[in-house]
Design goal:
Strand content: 25-35%
CATH class of the largest domain: Alpha Beta
CATH topology of the largest domain: Rossmann fold
Order of helices and strands: EEHHHEEHEEHHEHEEEHEHEH
Number of strands: 12
Strand order of the largest sheet: 6-5-4-7-8-11
CATH superfamily of the largest domain: von Willebrand factor, type A domain
Number of helices: 10
Oligomer: single chain
Helix content: 25-40%
Largest sheet: 6 strands, mixed
Radius of gyration: 36 Å
Length: 337
């Protein structure tokens, strides 16, 4: 029988003894005069302001007895704390998320913008992959590794916090898809995992960088790295950055959404992955959910349970309460007939 948390009792039937507590209280109430006889006085005026320490301590005797009985009943019910240990055997999957940080990711066809939604959905994906090693790279006009492969997903989620973390403008603007993919492949090439995956998300056309996207895809194929590509953006026009002010802020205006879908299909086709087009936050969530199913980790979990006895704590408490009652009754409040 579970009490709370990891604490449970082996013999809960002994809790029926708690039914005797009200009887003990009633017995003490009706027998109290045997312990503390009354003295008849003609007037109490002289004793009006008199309250001895013995009189105040008298009430503690039944309280200590009830507490002692309660603790001893719990002790004989044998409380135990359950300590669990998990042994996990997983066919490892190493995943690198490559995130586009070009200024066009601030387009507001996704609410509040593409980058905010992309980080949120990627964070949800990571939370569901707790046994996989996951890394994070970012690219715009250049590329870098934000976080190497790790199982410390709390660090990754900090970078993907929609309110903070990765932001547009921290690199030279542009869309270097080849650089982003090459940087991700570099993080995975020495991995010994059975499955190695790159999820590359972009909203534009490769327009800079010294590594061609298809060359990076061929390198990924050599290292048996599968690449899933995601094109983010609605069809038609979107309210997006069109120029930059002298203070670094962006001018926004209507701009044509241009995604090189043919290139992204070729990259995923060369590596054995798939290309997806996300035109809304909901479709992006569905894409990540599908990738999650395609790259499922097989996990074997063995749960070992250890039990730690806790009855001695309650037994000790019961003995202490009995000793306190005896000290009060036979020492401090001893009555002489």
């Amino acid at each position: 029988m579970k009490i709370f948390g990891n604490l449970h009792v082996v013999n809960p039937e002994f809790f029926l003894l708690f039914l005797l507590i009200p009887l003990l209280i009633a017995w003490y109430y009706f027998k109290r005069n045997n312990y503390f006889p009354k003295i008849r006085l003609s007037s109490f005026n002289s004793l009006e302001d008199f309250a001895s320490i013995r009189g105040r301590l008298r009430i503690l005797i039944p309280i200590f007895r009830i507490l002692a009985c309660t603790a001893l009943i719990i002790a004989i019910a044998r409380p135990q704390e359950t300590l669990k240990e998990e042994e996990i055997k997983a066919d490892g999957i190493d995943i690198v998320l490559a995130m586009d940080l070009s200024s066009s990711m601030l387009a507001q066809d996704f609410k509040p913008d593409r980058l905010w939604v992309s980080k949120k959905v990627a964070g949800d994906f990571i939370r569901g992959r707790k046994y996989d090693r996951i890394g994070l790279t970012a690219f715009a006009g250049e590329a870098y590794t934000q976080c190497p492969l790790t199982t410390d997903h709390a660090v990754l989620l900090e970078y993907l916090n929609p309110q903070a973390g990765l932001q547009c403008g921290i690199m030279q603007d542009g869309t270097a898809i080849g650089m982003g993919l090459a940087t991700s492949v570099n993080r995975l090439k020495d991995s010994e995992a059975k499955s190695k995956v790159v999820i590359l998300l972009t909203d534009g056309v490769n327009n800079t960088g010294y590594v061609k996207p298809l060359t990076a895809a061929e390198i990924a194929q050599e290292f048996k790295i599968k690449v899933y590509t995601i094109g983010v953006g609605t069809t038609g026009d979107a309210y997006a950055p069109v120029s930059k002010k002298s203070n670094g802020d962006f001018f926004f205006g209507m701009s044509r959404v241009q995604i090189d879908e043919q290139l992204l299909r070729e990259i995923s086709g060369i590596t054995g992955g798939r290309y997806y087009r996300a035109t809304s936050a909901e479709s992006l969530e569905r894409i990540y959910a599908e990738i999650d199913k395609l790259e499922k980790t097989e996990i074997e979990v063995s749960i070992l349970k250890r039990y730690q006895e806790k009855f001695h704590l309650f037994a000790l408490a019961g003995i202490i309460f009995l000793l306190l009652e005896a000290l009060l009754k036979y020492l401090f409040l001893r009555a002489i007939p």
